[in-house]
Amino acid sequence: MGFFKNMVDWFSSSPVPSANTVEEAMAGAMPNYEPKEVPMVGDERKPAKSTKTKHTKTSLMKKTKSQLEALGRKEFNLELDKRKTKATLVKELLGTIKKAG
């Protein structure tokens, strides 16, 4: 009868909850599901930095043609032709930036 009782206990038992530490496991404590406090970084009251960045010829030459095209489209509503050389794209974009600024 011991074998049958062990089988019934095995199928009907509830799962044992896991513990956070060895001490809790030995004490039989339930795990702590409370959210942990997250420390604040910086001061939330500071104003957000300006999203407008200053574009120079050097900073634009570091970008790829695709990045230049995306920048022109996003910030200046300008369509650039990627078939042109990178230097030409930078000149067109700088001209538009100077007109806008």
Structure in a nutshell:
The protein is built from 5 helices and no strands.
Structure notes:
The protein is mainly alpha-helical and 101 residues long. The chain has a domain at 57-100. The protein is 49% helix and 0% strand. Helix 4 (65-76) runs parallel beside helix 5 (86-100).
Features:
49% helix; 0% strand; 101 residues; mainly alpha
Mean pLDDT over all positions? 77
Radius of gyration: 32 Å
Describe the largest sheet. Answer: none
- Judged by helices, strands and strand pairing, the structural class is mainly alpha
Unreliable residue runs: none
Q: How would you describe the shape?
A: elongated
Count of strand segments = 0
The percent range for strand residues is: under 5%
| SSE pattern | HHHHH
Spatial separation of the terminal alpha carbons: 90 Å
Number of helices: 5
Oligomeric status of the shown chains? single chain
Percent helix, as a range, is 40-55%
Strand and helix map with partners:
Elements: H1 2-12, H2 22-27, H3 57-61, H4 65-76, H5 86-100
Helix pairs in contact: 4-5
